[in-house]
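User: Here's a protein and a ligand (inosinic acid). What would the complex look like?
Assistant: Let me lay out the input and then the predicted complex.
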Amino acid sequence: MAVDLLLGLQWGDEGKGKIVDVLTNNYNIIARFQGGPNAGHTLVFNGKKHVLHTIPSGIFHGDAMNLVGNGVVIDPVIFKGELDKLAEQDVDYKKSLLISRKAHIILPTHRLLDAASEAAKGKAKIGSTLKGIGPTYMDKTGRNGIRVGDLELSDWKQRYRNLANKHESMIAFYDVDIEYDLEELETEFFKAIDVLKSLTFIDSEEYVYQAQKSGKTILAEGAQGSLLDIDFGTYPFVTSSNTTAAGACTGLGVAPNKIGDVFGIFKAYTTRVGSGPFPTELFDEDGETMGRVGHEFGATTGRKRRCGWLDLVALKYACQVNGVTQLNMMKADVLSGFKTLKVCTAYKYKGETIAHLPYNIEAENVEPVYTEIKGWEEDLTTMTDASQFPQGLNDYIDFLEKELEIPITIVSVGPDRKQTIFRK
Ligand code: IMP
């Protein structure tokens, strides 16, 4: 069986967790392939909100297996926190959670290095979630990292010490004011490592291969969004992994010709958290309204998200890079009440009007060109079928489908599992 992918097409926070949770009934295995606790996947069901950072969003369905793939970076402390919360919900995660031996581990000093690096950047900071993501991937590509499989080796603590010592000298090199008590951080870390070691570690690429061969259905769950991809995002204001479709191949060991459907998730408008260019960002009442109605605060950091109109230039680019086969539009309900909706269909760039994403989309280079569409007043949150959609929403969907040439198969009208409408 081919592996289906589910990816964010914007700057993250599109609502991937909710859709994975909704789609899990169709899959035997849900697998994360990149990122780590910088992600915050929110699921709402039975009146309760659940936030997952590293654990795949299929964990609440008893029948699905959940795999943390080799491309993921794991902070044992945050991971343990997630497990504790699952235990409180009586989720029997031990039988449904598998961890790749090749996944890398975030050390306490990786987090400190992240903080030191950001502090040293001053105004040019990335706006990182400070979870140690960048430094951990740097150690991975620098061939210095510690992997989950290393925890099974007798000398792993020595390897840990060597790396942590090196990190401490790097922190000192940054020459910024970072206060920390490493002993305290390590006590917490080693406790969490013991919990991690009680879980099942596997050679995940073999597991994924055998699962495919025996006809099991697999959904690869992306984290962050395509515009935060280390290669194709708005560099340097990006995360440190490949968030796009190719990342699922390297982050799970899936061959490119074994990829099936690619679900592209986007919000009906655009948000971004952290620094970096955002051509359609709004600084007016419309932006405030989107943020307020859409509760646009980060699930991981609580930071206020920047809001703006839908950017079709960027969305088309993300669809191309990922080979999206189906689109899922999230938070359509947030746009109820806007008299007119704007969609950016081109950029004015160096005296020309262009319809592709250029190398540099800083505000001084790019001015969005908008198409206006009449909005709708109706509250969508209680709707259960696409036949109930108001004319304005149907026009908006038709316009996007025509521009993107990909069907919008799911429209989400609220955070709950139930507020998900499938279109034919
Ligand atoms: P880092 O991956 O924590 O280093 O953060 C790098 C950039 O990606 C920052 O602008 C973050 O705000 C952003 N970022 C990282 N993870 C997420 C996410 O899951 N959702 C939205 N933005 C994210």
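Summary: The mean pLDDT is 96.
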